From TrEMBL:
Alphabetical keyword list: ATP-binding, Nucleotide-binding
Family of this protein: Belongs to the MoxR family.
GO molecular function: ATP binding; ATP hydrolysis activity
One Pfam family this sequence matches: AAA_3
Domain of life (superkingdom): Bacteria
Protein name per the record: MoxR family ATPase
């Protein structure tokens, strides 16, 4: 575990050479990958979401590809398709041409600009690590992670992601504007003749070993109780919290509990600890729950935000 901690510290340092002022975001991204999950990055254009994903591919030593989602993108453009070929003897047969999804780190850029039909093409890949084309299953590489970027839904030309697909993302990380000092550093260090380039720290085999190690991290009963309390109190039908019953249309399912358990273990290892604490659960409450809950109409009309409701939930654990 100590060796893993040193490697992750090196990875954070390499990413920090390129991405400035977003340490919390970097830690949440690395937590997602250590836990073996997929990540949704949400923010307005120009905040470095694409650069962050590209940097991760280099630092973690993973084969990576990028898909630019557009309204005319079709499922076959992601998964691949079968083509009819004729041999020299005249025999015809179908050959499967792999799409860009057959990679270890798939970047889905502006995923909410594609139609719901195309978005759904990733569902099986994200959950089962395989795809079916023309009735034939095809296994994806291991490890396999989807890191998708999304513009805020309010922007023109976007489609809301279906709830079933949102639930497949381990974390939803919202990226805000950098502070003044970080933005000054960005301006000074990225407009010269040369930009800093990160170096590889891990490879795919080391990442898989780290993911197996995360699942072996012991979790105390207090942390398990905190996870279950947070998730179950987020359901308006059974919650004892007035803010939840009044404002939430539907709450998180059991997959949220699984995500919190894995992410808490990964966050503990990332910060050099051998077991997670309730502090990890509180820190991960928003990125785990914000895409697994929905406000009702009256709450949205009153200007209530999900982050505010989740803060009220997490306050019981502090």
């Amino acid at each position: 575990m100590e060796a893993l901690g040193e490697k992750m510290a090196d990875a954070r340092a390499q990413i920090g050479r390129v991405i400035f002022g977003q340490q919390v975001v970097i830690d949440q991204v690395l937590t997602t990958l250590l836990a073996g999950g997929h990540l949704l990055l949400v923010g307005v254009p120009g905040l470095g979401k694409t650069l962050l994903v590209e940097t991760l591919g280099t630092v973690l030593g993973l084969d990576s590809r990028r898909i630019q989602f557009t309204p005319d993108l079709m499922p076959a453009d992601i998964l691949g398709s079968e083509v009819l070929e004729e041999s020299e003897s005249g025999k015809r047969s179908f050959r499967f041409v792999h799409g860009p999804v057959f990679t270890q780190l798939l970047m889905g850029d502006e995923i909410n600009r594609a139609s719901p039909r195309t978005q759904s093409a990733l569902l099986q890949a994200m959950q089962e690590r395989k795809v079916s084309v023309a009735g034939h299953p095809h296994d994806l590489p291991s490890p396999f992670h989807v890191l998708a970027t999304q513009n805020p839904i309010e922007q023109e030309g976007t489609y809301p992601l279906p709830e079933a697909q949102l639930d497949r993302f381990l974390l939803q990380v919202n990226i805000d504007y950098p502070d003044a000092e970080s933005e000054r550093e960005i301006v000074l260090r990225t407009t010269g003749l040369r930009n800093a380039r990160p170096s590889a720290v891990l490879d795919d085999r080391m990442l898989l070993d780290a993911q197996r190690l995360v699942r072996q991290v012991p979790v105390g009963e207090k942390v398990v109780d905190a996870i279950l309390h947070l998730v179950r109190e987020g359901r308006p039908e059974t919650s004892g919290i007035e803010a939840v019953r009044r404002n939430v249309a539907w709450g998180p399912g059991p997959r949220a509990s699984q995500a919190l358990m894995l992410a808490a273990r990964a966050r503990a290892l990332l910060t050099g600890r051998l077991a997670p604490s309730t502090e990890d659960v509180v820190a991960l409450a928003k990125p785990v729950l914000r895409h697994r809950m929905a406000l009702n109409f009256s709450a949205r009309a009153d200007g209530v935000t999900l982050d505010t409701v989740i803060e009220r939930l997490a306050a019981d654990l502090a």
